[in-house]
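User:
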Amino acid sequence: MTYTWGFQIWALARHVWIEALRDRVIQVLCVIGLTLQAFSIVLSRMAIGSHARVIQDMGFWVLWISGLLGVLYLGSNLVRMEIQNRTVYLILSRPVTRSSFLLGKFCGMILVLGTNFFILSLSFIGVMLLSGIEVSAQHILAMFFIFVEWVLLAAFSIFFAGFTSPLLHNFFLTGVAFLGHWCNDLRLFAKNTESQVVKGILNALYFVLPNLESINFREAALYGDPVPNALLFSGVLFAAAWTGTLLFAAATIFSGRKIF
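Assistant: Predicted structure:
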């Protein structure tokens, strides 16, 4: 039974991965990311100040935004296209549970994102080495946790895709991605504002959204600061807890959704 369940998820994930690699949009996103990273060398020479800082800042930003755009595109189409093309009826008419269907789609997204991440991260490392920047353990950790954030956003994407339209899916996911990094600022604004309504909204956002700054180690990479093991462990635990909760909620919602 476990073997069959795992095989179903792998078969669905592999199908998503193969189809996505043929997708022109995914290919273009990857090429744009590579181009921007190469352009960072030119931009650093035009900037006033630390050239190494410009290259690293832009490299990390390109990695992060490429993941967000990839999740937005994949997540808004994966489940919706299956329903529109009626292929979901064929899949679920077989002994495939809705939970397996969603997990297969999620794992497929991770395979696609992992492929893009591998290409872009190698490019980023290559750009740094060509620019004479030493690639440290902090750089590798920062890049790894950017990918961890991609995985977390993919879980949010699967969750939103189960009950929203593509437009709302993209709006909510973009909000999570940006506001999640501004959580500490939201709390600070809530303390300083005099409006009780605004204070309540900001506090609600602070407690509802994941604090993505807890898995952001880019500053440590830029300044060469050591990252305590406790922070790394709590970051992995934080991402795993959010991802598991979101996938469980997505499976629950999708199981109760009327499709047939």
